[in-house]
Amino acid sequence: MKFLLLALLAVAASAEIDYSAPEWNIDWSNAVSIEEMPGFWDGRDLPAAVFASNARSSRIVGGVEVVHGEHPYQASILMTFGTGQGLCGGSLIGPRSILTAAHCPIGSSSTLVIMGAHNRLIIEPEQARQTVPAANYRIHASYSSATLANDIAILIAPTTWTLTANIARIALPGNIAEQFAGFRGTSTGWGRTTNTGATSAVMRRAVNNIITNAVCAATY
Description:
Order of helices and strands: HEEEEEEEEEEEH
Number of helices: 2
Largest sheet: 8 strands, mixed
Helix content: under 10%
Strand content: 25-35%
Radius of gyration: 19 Å
Shape: globular
Number of strands: 11
Distance between the termini: 69 Å
Structural class: mainly beta
């Protein structure tokens, strides 16, 4: 019995998080939204001014801080480029799969995915982190880097995510033809809190009306 107890303790100890590992020590001072990285808009048809800091009145900003674990599907995604680190968001949709925008990981050497985070700037015991190599990026076959059409990608983590109260898959719609126009949509993440302010350290959410593609095209 003593031997079994010691063996169980050894297994438990080996499963503890190694907070000294590189993926747990992030210099967030160099991380900016991917759209604000130098050279991001080079060669793209869409104007950078649409995403510039002085043109954010039409974008999602502000919102309210959420309760830790209220949106357990939300991922914080940190890409490593030669020019720095880019910050994006994503959603857990499968045992190893994170859904995100295609323009986020393209050109990066690797991506750090953080699940279970509330304050992304600190090490929380509820967090889990995995580094996704570039070979594990799955980019939409019809993605256009010039127009950002079909801006969809999936990041395949090396191992299965352990589901907890703070880490869970997002619920997907049963009817893929549903456009949800007229419904209220919830956006979550660590974006800007004001039009010209800094990105948020804690997870926030904003709720907005969902419009049709036609109304979107006519407006923007």
